[in-house]
Amino acid sequence: MNSGAAGASEPGRFVEVTNDTLLTVREEGVAALAAAVLRREATVAGLSVAFLSQEAMAELNERYRGVAGPTDVLSFPAGDDAGWPEPEEIYQPAPYLGDVVVCPAVAQANAAGDRVELGEELRRLIVHGVLHLLGYDHETDEGEMGSRESLLLEELPFGAADLLHDG
Description:
Distance between the termini: 15 Å
Low-confidence stretches: none
Largest sheet: 5 strands, mixed
Number of helices: 6
Structural class: alpha/beta
CATH class: Alpha Beta
Strand content: 15-25%
CATH superfamily: Metalloproteases ("zincins"), catalytic domain
Helix content: 40-55%
CATH topology: Collagenase (Catalytic Domain)
Shape: globular
Radius of gyration: 15 Å
Order of helices and strands: EEHEHEEHHHH
Strand order of the largest sheet: 1-2-3-5-4
């Protein structure tokens, strides 16, 4: 388990990354990608990205969505009354958007099914999760979120090597 934490910050934006899995994530790259989405969306705010095991993700999915089993990504907006813990004031140099939680094991299965590299799938999930924190909802917005996600994935210069360590 890599239980490490890293963050990236720039004026008005902060991203904290934690990894509670065996996957060797480049926390700095993950934070930079999430911050780039905030920049492109002209949002001055902070958020966190956490990588969790299948078991931990299954527990969250059941508890907060009522769905059994793990999922690839969940977003927990700050101030949502779903019982998700809020960060302490000390970690908030900017307004806090919420948390993006990613399950690398499910992402790996998705990547294999879609015939893409794990890093590319993680990139998609991080962008997807941040867009949810920004209020996009692919279930109700008639394709707006999907279009925005596709554009960001095309234009943001982050690849698998930015998100994962080799080996």
